[in-house]
Amino acid sequence: MWEFVVCDALVKVHPVREPRPVADGTRFQAFLGEPASFQLAYRPPLEATFRDPRPLRVRVEGDAADLVVGSVVDLVPCAFVALPGHDDGYEFDEPGLYPDLLRPAPGGEAPVRFGGWGAMWFDVTTSDPARAGVHELTVVVSSPDGAELHRTSVNVEITGIELPPLDIVSSHWMHLDSLADHYGVEVFSEEHWAMVDRFMASAAEMGATSLLTPVWTPPLDTAVGSYRTVVQLIDITATDEGYGFGFDRLRRWLELCRRNGITGVEIAHLFTQWGAEATPGIVVNQERAFGWDVGATDPQYRRLMEALLPALQAVLDEEWDREHVVFHISDEPSGEGGLATYLAAKGVVAALLKGWTIVDALSEHAFYTSGAVPLPVVATNHVEPFLAERPERLWVYYCVSQDRDVANRFVGMPSARNRAIGHQLFASGVDGFLHWGFNFWYTWHAIRQVNPFADTSAGGAFPSGDPFAVYPGTDGTPWPSLRHRVFAQAMWDHRALQAVRTAHGNDAALDIIDPDRTLRFDRPVLDPEHYYRARRRMTAALTGLPD
Asked: I need a labelling partner for 386 at 20 to 30 A (CA). Which of 19, 137, 345, 522 fits?
């Protein structure tokens, strides 16, 4: 009467679609520290008389049961799923409720959806080489009254290999104001710092190696003339003798980065977004002294930067390896006039940034060929001209506008389209990846807050899933999404390919994921089995065992 289906981690279990079962004999594999993930889909009896709303009880038995963490796959409302005329690489394209949120289920309670499929997600993780090996787990499902409804066996293989760290930058912009605003806590209170720590750990778990550092409140996604909640790490005072600075909060931020394995530090943008016409809303003497009303080339701002940037750089040299520090001028400059404005703003600080790396996201090739941006972060749908020139260093990004032909992590896209980025980054040989929305819980231009459990598209501005990868759980705890987990798998793929390259050469690694050498950013592989097959071959190459 009940139906149960074991699914792999790239399935999105929708209430009214038959879930794709995992292939017979599939072994879910992971390396040390990586979750081996699978799902159990379930549907109650399709009878009008079935009316028991009580949750099922799910437990896991076996020698590795203590390594298992279960979550409920919850549906979230998606008002804006895909643009009209989208490509064929979407799983869902109409407004509706779709699986995305992974809600903790420490008691093993699985909610019942009358007439529809639900799912439990399982992560099996260990960093202990002694626990490596093949483990047979048994998932047991019981009714609320204790009667056993189903049991199924799942093989999980933990490969006793510690992969090398990710050798590219994986940058994600965590919004500290979003945490304070959503939870209603004072910025940089102890409660806020604890949340920052937990969400930073979640970003690292997703594969982030670099975070935007709010030395001043980042001038991003802000309506002209308005300001977001101040999250400035540096205390700035002004007297008749000049400026003074306090870096205690910045040092605390850097310590959290160290503790959570974040190796990259990105200094918040020095000028406003989409043109670099104004200065950030920097607070001096506890009052806003700069912002939309102060132009980028205002001499007053230059005087501040002449004092602030050397002092900031001294702290960074003391605390961090400058090879892993980048500065931003302005995000997404564009247009002929935009180049001139960008260069004028850059001229204000260029001499002060000599010897430091400057990185900016852009789409127009002219910004690179002009020399304005030596290390560009290029949208994946505009990157081919850059790849053809093979610049010394190159990052890529995707966001709301990368909705056709390329990988992305919108809720409406299949999970394979999310995981594809790991293979693409490795095959292309680029140096980094960036995404703007780790936890942006606002509408477009941060005009107002949203409840991310009710609004996944920033008030209808961006396709659902683009603004954030984590949900604000209870007690300031991040709750991951399917997209969070699958993006992490993409980064683990990259790390495994690095290990294969070290052991057998780059061609051997490419032969696993791109034997025809046709993989491009606008050609993500959407076949889920491709990623499991490729992972089996990576594992075989590293262990010497057959795949």
From this structure: 345
